[in-house]
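Changelog-linked ticket: glutathione example.
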Amino acid sequence: MKKTFVLFSVLLLVAFVLAACSSEPETIEVEVTRIVEVPVEGGAGPAEAVTFEGGGDTLAAVQDRGILNCASNAALPGFANLEADGSYTGFDYDFCRVVAAAVLGDSQAVEVRPTTATERFPVLQSGEADVLIRNTTWTLSRDTSLGFDFQPTTFYDGQGMMVREDSGITTLEDFEGGSVCVQAGTTTEKNLADVFRKLGINAETIVFPDNPSTTAAYDDGRCDGLTTDKSGLAAVRTQTSNPDEHVILDVTMSKEPLGPLTRHGDNNWGDVVMWAVNCTIQAEELGITSENVDEFLGSDDPVVLNLLGIEGDLAQAMGLENDFCVEIIRQVGNYAEIYDRNLGPDTGVFIPRGLNSLYTEGGLLYSPPFR
Ligand SMILES: N[C@@H](CCC(=O)N[C@@H](CS)C(=O)NCC(=O)O)C(=O)O
């Protein structure tokens, strides 16, 4: 796809504008000088709000096809890694595999559709994907106007700011008169305008269409800072030419609960994705892993027997096999295994679990009962 960009700069003083390139439906009020790189051909336009009559039956479609079409991220270390053989790995992709294991009994039966921030919503709305699992923040407008349902949060995040260590910038106030690189079609762009307005900071926001162009611009010194979800910052820091030269400020600008989305109206499919994610959390709560799941099949704990489908037929109410959770755990692992494999201390992107710990360990992860 040929990309041509028009560069323009405007000073907007308490003006209402429609976010260029943005998939967000709302108008935003900004008080910053804003330079926008606008794709003038071949770019994805704003997502249309879509109402789904009856919602279809995505579960039946996936079962007939034998493959899950999963929209995810194109390039975000730890969350979406393009491997040398053309396959994808990462935290978000593992949750695609969780859904495929639940529905098809085969975690490899996934066709991945890498998407940028601007592409992701039309791809799900149009039916090109069955589910979107890609660092997407649960917001009211996405849940309503864009016609989606958010399934359980898989990563609790917040927006952060990265700067060059030698820049002397240690607080957001230090951005007065400075500039920030940000990606279009994200919550990030609007949060930044809100935070700067609240703090009375006049700074330039420079908007780019995807992660590689945003990171490259920051790395080339075009902006004093780069802002996105803190998970994204940990990932893009590894993509700069010298990661040690960059620091992530100790500020959190927003709440960014990230998780899977399904189309509004297909409630059963939403339930399938919801309980597939819950299975990974409940398995961690019970200490069931890919290594020991077979030992638990003979457990005498009724809670374990319900989760693994040894007793009862809970899963049939949503059209799944009773042992769907066994397949998830055996083939992909529990939440802790998925986290550690992609974001743990032995990975290049280590992100401490923090809020993404179980509720019993001070975090926010909590599965409703499999009952
Ligand atoms: N969570 C935010 C931001 C998500 C987002 O798209 N972040 C960017 C910056 S880290 C990204 O993943 N870009 C990857 C790409 O476009 O390839 C949202 O839902 O809007």
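Closing comment: Example verified and attached. The two ends are 50 Å apart (CA to CA). Residues 1-54 have pLDDT under 50 and may be disordered.
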